[in-house]
Amino acid sequence: MSTAHIRAVLADDERLMREQLRSRLTEVWPELEIVAEAKNGLEAVELTREHKPDLVFLDIRMPGLTGVDAARQIAQLPEDDDWLVPEIVFITAYDQYAVEAFEQGVADYVLKPAERERLQLTVARIKKRLAQREGSETVETSSAPLQQLLHKLSAQVSGGGAKPSYLQWIQATVGQAIQMIPVDDVLFFISDEKYTRVQTAKVEALIRKPIKELVDELDPQVFWQIHRSTLVNARAIDGITRDFRGRQLVGVKGLTEKLEVSRSYTHLFKGM
After folding, report:
1. pLDDT at 204 over 90
2. Is residue 2 part of a domain?
3. Alpha carbon of 6 to those of 29, 173, 225: distances in Å?
């Protein structure tokens, strides 16, 4: 992928805002190919799934599915050898959403109406991040994963400022029995198509809840998503190694099993 040929999806429920952003992007980034435009969050997710763009512009406030909720779903889309989860740029009319996390590089934002100078800064940042991906370098970002930012924004967009309530217990199947497992005891969660494995130091259990739901229910500062199918307790990480193909592998305290880190999450272990 060359930064001279980047594909993008735009999502805003206001047609005039989409046209204005498209026009500004044409001025500051003429090589950018806008492959689709969405009128709401659901369309944004589906168009991202269909077109597999490198970049998605999401209006934060949209009917049905907000831009933040759309970003959470986009972050869970399956990757392949030719496509990684896209970079996200939020579009907002409110300074209150221009939080520090954006400036630290987890994602970026553009205030409505999009001004040329601010958009040029966003374009420069996105080009740098995409070039780093292409060069197999570690993407510079905040130590907090994107999901942590999305949790914070979701609370703001929904109008709640209260501290989120996270899952404390997991009801899981262990052999033929049902057990209540304290979330603090879980070392990692890993999913296949039907079940999610819950691993503690003492037991291996199964639940039917998928990773994309657990991501929203667990404290993102404790449970880090390292793959679309894997969440690991950060306190249980024993170290990072690489296999013969250069992939990062997470060691878990007390276990010989290694957990693969997908390319979208290698930034979590920068410097390790």
Report:
1. yes
2. no
3. 10, 46, 26
